[in-house]
């Protein structure tokens, strides 16, 4: 049987750890807290986006690797934000990173913003849409030339429009 002392010890320990755990696990919530030109209420976002896209763009979730059809998209064209249709990446900058997510070495001018993401106990650079603040993925410094960057994006957060012939 659990003693009162054990319960009290667990409660005090949890109270001491909770603030750290919250900051360790909390997401930056750029999409919800930032000031962006394209804004909708949460209800409007939920009506506009499929549940998986809402989870990524508005709640900073991550899709499973190798689950996006955009990972295998190799036609000429433009990748845009699924939330607000802002063109984000040209197909000329897309490359196969082997990670399971669509990867690019450079965004289009003024298409994305970045912020520090310290979730999961590590520091990464989060990438979001410059127009609506939707979470797109992260950028890493292990990409190809000419930039050396790898914009590792969630395919569910984007759409693709093929170039006109």
What's the overall average pLDDT, rounded? 86
Strand order of the largest sheet: 3-4-8-7-6-5
Reported CATH architecture? Beta Complex
Q: Which blocks of ≥5 consecutive residues have pLDDT under 50?
A: 7-28
Number of strands: 9
Tally of individual helices: 4
Provide an overview of this structure.
A six-stranded antiparallel β-sheet has the order 3-4-8-7-6-5. A three-stranded antiparallel β-sheet has the order 2-1-9, with no helix packed on it. Helix content is 25%, strand content 24%. The chain has helices at 4-25, 30-33, 42-48, 51-59; strands at 77-81, 87-90, 94-95, 103-104, 112-117, 124-129, 135-140, 150-153, 158-162. It is an alpha+beta fold and 165 residues long. The chain has one domain (4-162): Metal Binding Protein, Guanine Nucleotide Exchange Factor, Chain A (Beta Complex).
Topology:
Elements: H1 4-25, H2 30-33, H3 42-48, H4 51-59, E1 77-81, E2 87-90, E3 94-95, E4 103-104, E5 112-117, E6 124-129, E7 135-140, E8 150-153, E9 158-162
Antiparallel strand pairs: 1-2, 1-9, 3-4, 4-8, 5-6, 6-7, 7-8
Please supply descriptive tags for the structure shown above.
alpha+beta; 6-stranded antiparallel beta sheet
Put the structure in a nutshell.
This protein is α+β, with helices and mostly antiparallel strands and 165 residues long. 25% of the residues lie in helices and 24% in strands. It has a single domain, classed as Peptide methionine sulfoxide reductase (Metal Binding Protein, Guanine Nucleotide Exchange Factor, Chain A), CATH 2.170.150.
